[in-house]
């Protein structure tokens, strides 16, 4: 296991990630992914897309990251997307008040759920001090701080807008069009991978809590009454669950079970959420998360976001702490209902009945020649209000008069003028608001987990070596190619031709002819390159075909094989059709001095 410091140093030294804008003093909460990190992140995103978009049969979109204020009035983020802020009067540093409590009080794991007033009290009761300067924080006010970055769209005073705090809203606001592309048929899923922004009070722990990060989200739109997930595909998947009941129990334990049993035993109440936990478990295993350091934890009630009816987090263990790397929320009809209420568009789908239904419908046909003179400009609204009342409370038309309200004014109308009737109508279907189930992954936190779980040390040639045991699919580079001696033209020709040939076969290659060969191996080990190929004099000598050595990262074992066979063998390994062990059975093992200087 890597210490945070060792991993951060390696990340910086080898170009995975580092604090952004360092030339200008740095900006807390913003990180740049260097060449290795960007490649690793791209591979994680590609693997996610392959699973959650392509394999699940979903469609991907790319929406803008800046959205106008009404979107977030509707979504609830303007009112409810807050963290608890406390500022030190002495040094002016800002802190997450709930985190201070969690760090200081052993049996409080979710202080956010306690509310601002209680957290303020706890800070007083426990005499908490500012972590930066040590000044007393008791008596300092705790406030809700909205995490969205505000901006202005257009010149002048512009239109108020915000950087999206979750990619999801870009999918929800486009639902009226997206449902058309899905031909109005539920269920369907839309994915998006892209940046999200949160003005975190105290960004910390490297790329784990930052102010700009990448999310990979899937919004699955379902008919809650009819649509079932294909649970049979994941029912035997084994998972480690930490439900609310166990978190509350004094001797609470993890539940080791299968997805199928967790649904049968009602540990996970939504089959859709369970289905996505099963798919995610397989995906995390595939990309290289250590499954002994992984669990699904259910949100406590006070922890759930304002939109979530139930939520489970995927958590990975990092340096002895559990961090949330993805959330799986049952968002119900919250988002589409809110956008339907706040916008001009329709956020429903038309659900056709198997057979047309005959139903009784209460309706009005107001006499506008009477309403117009009586109510003037309000007559149209009064007619609409009468129709709404007929649908919601037909008995209101039993008397001689009926009263409706519109724009805060009451209007009394003669029932004869309203022309109320109940008619039989044939209906082919109804408009329903789909429910949403959402797997939401943090890409940066996944990258960090993979690095931490892959970090390894061993002894090679009597030296301690650090290597990243990354899954080949995820490693930034597939193969490194070295000419053993950097000023030998014959070796360079073979090595650079080989690099070109491998690249043409779709394999990503790092060509390196600088420094000692031992150092070159160490460099590649530290960035997790699964294979190194060395072109040496032995392979070029003699009348036989040219050979090269192939070295596998984790075992440091080397084989000699014909250069003409290398591309096909490596392609087979990367496609999962062959293992390095199979090559070991067929090719000569070499213990030459090519690993050392
Ligand atoms: N649309 C749902 C949503 O945004 P979330 O739990 O707030 O849910 C989803 O975020 C994921 O995004 C988290 O599980 C985490 O991996 C990542 N994430 C959230 N805030 C983050 C931050 N400040 N820095 C890095 N990653 C973050």
How would you describe what is shown here?
This protein is an alpha+beta fold and 597 residues long. It folds into 3 domains: 1-70 and 166-348 and 433-462, Bira Bifunctional Protein, Domain 2 (BirA Bifunctional Protein, domain 2), CATH 3.30.930.10; 353-431, no CATH class; 477-590, Anticodon-binding domain (Rossmann fold), CATH 3.40.50. It contains 21 helices and 29 strands. A 9-stranded mixed sheet has the order 3-10-11-21-16-15-14-12-13. Strand 8 (150-153) and strand 9 (159-163) form a beta hairpin. The radius of gyration is 31 Å and the shape is elongated. Bound molecules: glycyl-adenosine-5'-phosphate. Glycyl-adenosine-5'-phosphate (GAP) binds next to strand 11, strand 16, strand 21 and helix 16.
Q: TL;DR?
A:
The chain contains 21 helices and 29 strands. The chain has 597 residues and is an alpha+beta fold. Strand 24, helix 17 and strand 25 form a beta-alpha-beta unit.
């Amino acid at each position: 296991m890597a210490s945070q410091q060792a991993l951060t140093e390696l990340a910086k030294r080898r170009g995975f990630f580092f604090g952004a804008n360092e030339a200008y003093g740095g900006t807390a909460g913003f990180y740049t992914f260097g060449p290795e990190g960007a490649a690793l992140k791209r591979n994680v995103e590609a693997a996610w897309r392959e699973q959650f978009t392509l394999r699940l049969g979903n469609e991907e979109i790319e929406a803008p990251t800046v959205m106008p204020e009404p979107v977030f009035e509707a979504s609830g983020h303007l009112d409810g997307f807050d963290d608890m802020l406390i500022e030190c009067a002495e040094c002016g540093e800002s802190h997450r008040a709930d985190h201070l409590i969690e760090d200081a009080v052993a049996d409080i794991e979710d202080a956010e759920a306690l509310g601002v007033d209680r957290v303020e009290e706890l800070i007083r009761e426990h005499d908490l001090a500012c972590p930066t300067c040590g000044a007393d924080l008791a008596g300092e006010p705790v406030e809700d701080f909205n995490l969205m970055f505000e901006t202005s769209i257009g010149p002048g005073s512009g239109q108020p807008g915000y950087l999206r705090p979750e990619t999801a809203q870009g999918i929800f606001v486009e639902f009226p069009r997206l449902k058309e592309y899905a031909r109005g048929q539920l269920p369907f899923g839309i994915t998006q991978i892209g940046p999200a922004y949160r003005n975190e009070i105290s960004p910390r722990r490297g790329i784990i809590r930052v102010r700009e990060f990448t999310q990979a989200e899937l919004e699955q739109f379902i008919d809650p009454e009819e649509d079932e997930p294909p649970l049979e595909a994941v029912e035997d998947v084994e998972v480690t669950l930490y439900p609310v009941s166990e978190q509350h129990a004094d001797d609470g334990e993890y539940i080791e079970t299968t997805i199928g049993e967790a649904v049968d035993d009602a540990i996970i109440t939504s089959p859709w959420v369970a289905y996505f936990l099963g798919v995610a478990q397989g995906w995390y295993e595939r990309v290289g998360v250590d499954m002994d350091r992984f669990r699904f934890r259910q949100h406590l009630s006070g922890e759930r976001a304002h939109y979530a009816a139930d939520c489970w987090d995927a958590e990975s263990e990092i340096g002895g702490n559990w961090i949330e790397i993805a959330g799986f929320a049952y968002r119900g009809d919250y988002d589409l209902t809110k956008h339907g209420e706040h916008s001009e568009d329709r956020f429903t789908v038309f659900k056709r009945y198997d057979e047309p239904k005959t139903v009784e419908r209460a309706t009005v046909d107001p006499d506008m020649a009477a309403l117009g003179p009586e109510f003037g400009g309000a007559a149209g609204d009064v007619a609409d209000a009468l129709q709404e009342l007929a649908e919601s409370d037909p008995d209101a038309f039993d008397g001689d008069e009926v009263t409706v309200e519109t724009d805060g004014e009451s209007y009394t109308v003669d029932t004869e003028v309203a022309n109320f009737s109940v008619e039989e109508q044939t209906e082919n279907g109804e408009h329903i608001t789909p429910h949403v189930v959402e797997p939401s992954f943090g890409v940066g936190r996944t990258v960090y987990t993979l690095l931490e779980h892959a970090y390894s040390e061993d002894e090679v040639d009597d030296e301690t070596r650090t290597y990243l045991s990354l899954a080949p699919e995820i490693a930034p580079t597939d193969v490194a190619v070295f000419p053993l001696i950097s000023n030998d033209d014959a070796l360079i020709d073979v090595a650079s031709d080989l690099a070109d040939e491998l690249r043409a076969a779709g394999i990503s290659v790092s060509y390196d002819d600088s420094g000692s060969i031992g150092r070159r191996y160490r460099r590649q080990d530290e960035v997790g390159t699964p294979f190194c190929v060395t072109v040496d004099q032995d392979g070029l000598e003699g009348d036989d075909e040219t050979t090269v050595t192939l070295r596998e990262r984790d075992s440091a074992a080397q084989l000699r094989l014909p250069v003409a066979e290398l591309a096909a063998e490596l392609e087979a390994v990367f496609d999962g059709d062959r293992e390095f062990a199979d090559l070991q059975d067929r090719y000569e093992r070499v213990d030459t001095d090519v690993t050392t200087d």
